[in-house]
Design brief:
Elements: E1 5-14, E2 19-28, E3 35-46, H1 48-65, E4 70-75, H2 78-84, H3 96-109, E5 111-116, H4 123-139, E6 198-204, H5 209-213, H6 226-242, E7 248-251, H7 255-268, E8 273-275, H8 292-298, H9 300-308, H10 320-337, E9 342-347, H11 349-359, H12 365-369, E10 377-382, E11 388-395
Parallel strand pairs: 1-4, 4-5, 6-9, 7-8, 7-9
Antiparallel strand pairs: 1-2, 2-3, 6-10, 10-11
Helix pairs in contact: 1-3, 3-9, 6-7, 10-11
Region (Disordered): 152-172
Domain RNase H type-1: 2-142
Active site: 205, 281
């Protein structure tokens, strides 16, 4: 079956903010402009932003019903477009479940692009929304409740704590995963000379007390534990054997990483350690230092929304989409600065998982299914023309004697 492309124009508004609210959505054939479907409804008393998200949900739902496999969403709401594109945090708790539902619909479609347009180019959806607001002003309809997406289980160490015995989470994958665009990378079975690639040896820092206790460990500067220090010594020897001629050692600026990096640099031959802020762990905001159970108890809705989408951040924190953007920047810098050389990169769970996800052109489900041990080693090659080879993922053989 040929792919079906649909254009969605959506809008929403409230008279009073909050006040009588409604939304409108129009689906068109992008080639002819023909209207394929219209959706509108009054939603009682709500804010402009809630109404705009409801318009988006209605448009995406209609696109799914039409069998669309590629959608361009056009809205005059800068907030919705930027949040759904992963560039802005979703700070308001009332919007996070709506965004999570939108991400689930995106995952059912395949490819979805979000484009901001001026209000005067969104007149059809705006008219539908205003008609719905007229109805809301006279009907007294109550705002429908919007349940957050249900998550079956917490993720296996997705940058935060690792729940004992937990399975993989149900993840709403989105088509436009932020990070390096690898869809145009060369595809070939032909052997490539490794000496022309930049080899990145990705090392997760050694264990800390937070690692052992299963706590979210982001920007807090938690030191290596005694076990972590032993892991670092073994890791340094292993990396020195893998890369005796490494050109550089770069590291997250947090001490658990710099201590790991300094041991590796000394084992290779007194290389300097260069901190890079783009390698820092995800900012878990209000969840920093807390266990998964504690977060579940206090932020159940926010946690479900976060687990469902890499575009949603913890309260006062950072989304994985934002971390992916940082990872893409540092990777490109290293490939440009060290062609044909080996670089040791010492970082955290989230950045390393995101680098491997992008290198493998995987979906976000990969993040929940990949386990990275403390002091584990992964290796990937990047060629100047965009070619990529992942050679090792989470090698921990050097830690066997410490078990």
């Amino acid at each position: 079956m040929a792919p079906r492309t649909v254009l969605v124009e959506a809008d929403g508004g409230a008279r009073g903010n909050p006040g009588p609210a409604g939304y409108g959505a129009v689906l068109r054939d992008p080639a002819t402009g023909e209207v394929l479907a219209e959706r509108s409804a009054a939603i009682g008393t709500a804010t402009n932003n809630v109404a705009e998200y409801q318009g988006l949900l209605a448009g995406l739902t209609a696109a799914v019903e039409l069998g669309a496999t590629e959608v361009e969403v056009r809205m005059d709401s800068k907030l919705v477009v930027e949040q759904m594109s992963g560039r802005w945090q979703i700070k308001h708790p009332g919007l996070r479940p709506l965004a999570a539902q939108a991400v689930q619909l995106v995952g059912r479609i395949g490819t979805v692009r979000f484009t901001w347009i001026p209000r005067d180019r969104n007149t059809h959806a705006d008219a539908l929304a205003n008609a719905a607001m007229d109805a809301a002003a006279t009907s007294g309809v109550a705002v429908p409740s919007v349940a957050p997406p249900r998550v079956v289980a917490p993720p296996r160490e997705l940058g935060g704590p690792q729940p004992a015995g937990g399975g993989a989470a149900t993840v709403a994958a989105h088509a436009e995963t932020p990070g390096t665009d690898l869809t145009s990378a060369p595809v070939s079975w032909e052997p490539r000379p490794s000496f022309t690639a930049t080899r990145l040896i990705l090392v997760r820092h050694g264990e800390t007390e937070y690692t052992e206790q299963g706590r979210y460990s982001g920007r807090g500067d938690v030191a290596l534990s005694a076990k972590g220090q032993a892991q670092v010594r073994a890791t340094a020897a292993r990396v020195a054997a893998l890369a005796p001629q490494a050109a550089a050692v770069v590291s997250s600026p947090l001490s658990r990483c710099t201590a790991t990096a300094e041991a590796i640099a000394a084992a290779i031959g007194d290389l300097p350690v260069r901190p890079d802020d783009d390698l820092i762990e995800c900012d878990f905001g209000a969840w920093e230092g807390r266990t998964f159970a504690e977060v579940r108890e206090q932020w159940a809705g926010e946690l479900d929304a976060w687990l469902a989408s890499t575009r949603i951040a913890p309260p006062d924190g950072e989304s994985f989409a934002q971390v992916a953007d940082r990872c893409a920047r540092v990777t490109e810098r290293l490939v440009a600065a060290y062609p044909g050389q080996t670089v040791v990169v010492v970082s955290h769970v989230s950045p390393i998982k995101l680098m491997l996800r992008d290198a493998l052109a995987a979906t976000d489900a990969f993040l929940h299914r990949l386990y990275l041990d403390a002091a584990g080693i992964s290796v990937l090659d990047r060629w100047p023309d965009g070619g990529i080879a992942v050679r090792t993922v989470n090698d921990t053989a050097h830690l066997a004697s410490l078990q």
